[in-house]
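Why does residue order matter? Because the sequence determines the fold. Keep that principle in mind as you read this record.
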Amino acid sequence: MGWCEVTYKEKWIAENPTKIFDSSRVVMCTKFLGRNPEFNCIEKELSCEQCWNQEIEESEDKCMTKSDLKSGMVIQVRNGDTYLLCDFNGVLHAIKNDSWFHLTSHRSDMKYEVNEDFDIVKVFYNGCNSLRSVLDVTGTKPIWTCGEEKEISADEAFRILKEHYGCDVKIMQE
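Structure:
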């Protein structure tokens, strides 16, 4: 997954947490910020606000990686804890009320090499005024969610393949 089910406005705010969003400025047109240059909002009779509030149409195979993370975003790790990302001397640190860690041991796919409880599974932008309110992501739509793999038995896999193809399936070794 990439920036799926996220609007251009939400993505811009997540990427620019210290700037004030103002869609009325021509400089801020989505056309100039990476949207399809042939897209013509005037022909489609869309206001700037309508254009900014459209969901991003990016390919499903683009994954969010560690390099997409920015100071000011909030991450949720596999154990359910949420952390605010802060840049200290060029290194992203995840902080919450009583603990912190730096992201140097996370791989580019946001998996933690030492303990899977700290794999990053969701990313939010939750601009608020206090650390407590920033870390409360209740009701906040994530800007990214980890696509999990599902483990199934061989019997279950054969049943699914039989349903799909309508006959028994033999798996060949490559």
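The chain has a mean pLDDT of 75.
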